[in-house]
Automatic annotation (TrEMBL), chain A:
SMART domains linked: FBOX
Residue runs in coiled coils: none
Domain F-box, residue spans: 12-57
Protein name as catalogued: F-box/kelch-repeat protein At3g06240-like
SUPFAM superfamilies in the record: F-box domain (SSF81383)
Species name: Rhodamnia argentea
Phylogenetic classification of the source organism: Eukaryota, Viridiplantae, Streptophyta, Embryophyta, Tracheophyta
TrEMBL record, chain B:
Pfam families hit by this protein: Skp1, Skp1_POZ
Coiled coil: none
Domain SKP1 component POZ residues, every copy: 6-64
Protein name as it appears in the record: SKP1-like protein 1A isoform X1
Annotated ranges, domain SKP1 component dimerisation: 109-125
Lineage: Eukaryota, Viridiplantae, Streptophyta, Embryophyta, Tracheophyta
Keywords: Ubl conjugation pathway
Length: 366, 163
């Protein structure tokens, strides 16, 4: 004890020298969830951790980490957060794994995109951008575009202006019978909707996936045996659709969805016998498409509509959402799985997000 | 051809260390001093004790050697060396903070990254399986907020009750 006290009195001279820079460096390496707790340690730390410049540094540190940054699943209807790594742990029960979030009157109808820890949600009458880690939520002003069934959405980051953009597009049949597309973009920094030119927009549907400054959808050309598939990127900087990326033609497979796996674009399909997933190892290079998994699904629970891959755990297992009724954790090596019922509801959607301190109010700090 | 000039560094307690220029310039601070022609005699480092300076020199030597080797030292091997260098029983906790301050003052980015990451890992609870070591660590932290944070993290992880 004596030695420790002696060390402490010497250390108190050192105290003055532990500058703010060093504290910032150390804190930037800690998980966002921990940092949220540390806000109550002192006023100095509260203001430091709330500062968006620190949030940006913290995000950069996350992207440097060799271990995957902490990620969770967000699920709509009802809005819940699922710790999917904990799903992997045999000891843990459901209470620990699922956390309910309440956005008051703005009950989300659907998930529209996820980027840098911000999740974009469709709510009645408009959209919301939410950070489930900090619980900051920003309601966006209503767009001029009326939501129709033929909608597509995307949400992503633009590095040139350090901004996040929400893309909202819809197809209409014009009076003369032709298909028209109207495209609107909301910039978090700018704070309003803008209509952008949209000729010859490919017939897209659903939620796009953000990667490398663009949002990506899968698209089919033609039909039956002659169906050609491609990935259509929408550049957030150019605000135009860019060159389509061809998808390999695989026997018996018609890819139905896009995702991200370890920083690479992933496409997947459920055939009657297996779950197929391919990744594009080099962005844009169609020769670099490689089969990642082919998992037999004969043991999977019965499903009526869809089986969607949501996340990949550190131990290499895959989380799937089955219809609107359950999530399963599958071991790709042998196809075995554990299942977790979720509250059944119409229109349950899930997405993965990173735990960050990024604020949806960027440029409009409260 | 890199010069193999020797540079003398003097610690706060008056000890002199002779090192190759290539090793000395791992420190951006020393590098600027040399460029500004202040290095004819020994370079005084009033903020760094001999104990710490010896460790810093050991670190810089290893990293310079690693990049010079004919067949470049494997990244994995260097990482392993770094881990052993900073390991808790090699470097007691008080020394860890002195190393952070030295790396900051001498502007040696990779050493600063290594030491700050080590403290972050300690806070996350990754490095101390035994309770006593936690007490030692919190005693040596010269920052009230960091101490509070270590303790709260421990409670969060419930390690206090397990070890």
């Amino acid at each position: 004890m004596k030695k420790q006290f002696a060390e402490t009195s010497r250390s108190s001279a050192v105290a003055e020298n532990i500058t703010e820079d060093i504290i910032i460096d150390i804190l930037s390496r800690l998980p966002a969830k921990s940092l949220m707790r540390f806000k109550c340690v002192s006023k100095r730390w509260r203001s430091l951790i709330s500062d968006q410049r620190f949030a940006k540094l913290h995000l950069q540190m996350l992207s440097l980490e060799t271990v995957a940054p902490s990620q969770k699943i967000i699920k709509s209807n009802p809005l819940q957060i699922i710790d999917y790594e904990a799903l992997d742990d045999d000891e843990v029960n459901d209470h620990v794994v699922v956390e309910s979030h309440d956005l008051g009157r703005d009950e989300p109808q659907g998930l529209v995109g996820s980027c840098h820890g911000l999740v974009s949600l469709a709510v009645y009458g408009g959209f919301l951008v939410y950070n489930p880690t900090t619980r900051e939520s920003r309601k966006l002003p209503a767009s001029n575009l009326v939501a129709t069934y033929e909608c597509f959405h995307g949400f992503g980051y633009m590095s040139t202006t350090d901004d996040y953009k929400l893309v909202h597009g819809a197809f209409f049949t014009a009076d003369d019978g032709s298909e028209e597309c109207v495209l609107e973009i909301f910039s978090l920094r700018y704070g309003s909707w803008r209509r952008v030119p949209s000729e010859d927009v490919p017939l897209l549907d659903g939620v796009g996936i953000y990667l490398n400054g663009a949002v990506h959808w899968i698209m089919d050309h033609g039909s039956g045996y002659r169906t050609e598939q491609a990935i259509i990127p929408f550049g957030l900087a150019t605000e135009t659709f860019e060159v389509a990326i061809p998808i390999p033609k695989v026997e018996g497979v018609l890819f139905e969805g896009v995702g991200i796996h370890e920083g690479r674009l992933l496409i997947y399909d459920f055939t009657s016998i297996s779950f197929e997933a391919w990744v594009m190892n080099e962005y844009g290079k169609k020769e670099s498409w490689t089969r990642l998994f082919s998992i037999p699904i004969d043991g999977f629970p019965d499903h009526k509509f869809y089986v969607i891959p949501i996340a990949y755990t550190r131990s290499g297992k895959i989380v799937f959402q089955i219809d609107v009724s359950e999530m399963i954790l599958v071991n790709p090596k042998d196809g075995t799985y554990k299942n977790y019922p979720i509250e059944e509801h119409d229109n349950v959607e899930s997405a993965i997000y990173m735990e960050t301190l990024v604020s949806p109010y960027i440029g409009h700090e409260q | 051809m890199a010069s193999s000039r020797k540079i003398t560094l003097r610690s706060s307690d008056g000890e002199s260390f002779e090192v190759e220029e290539a090793v000395a310039v791992e420190s951006q601070t020393i590098k600027h001093m040399i460029e500004d022609d202040c290095a004819d005699n020994a370079i005084p480092l009033p903020n760094v004790t001999s104990k710490i300076l010896a460790k810093v020199i050991e670190y810089c030597k290893k990293h310079v050697d690693a990049s010079k080797a004919e067949d470049r030292v494997n990244d994995e091997d260097l990482k392993a060396w770094d881990a052993a260098f900073i390991k808790v029983d090699q470097v007691d906790q008080a020394t860890l903070f002195d190393l952070i301050l030295a790396a900051n003052y001498l502007n040696i980015k990779s050493l600063l990254d290594l030491t700050c990451q080590t403290v972050a890992d300690m806070i996350k609870g990754n490095l101390f399986p035994v309770r006593n070591e936690w007490l030692n660590f919190t005693f040596s932290i010269a920052n009230r907020e960091l101490v509070l944070v270590c303790l709260t993290e421990w409670v969060a992880h419930r390690r206090l009750f397990c070890s």
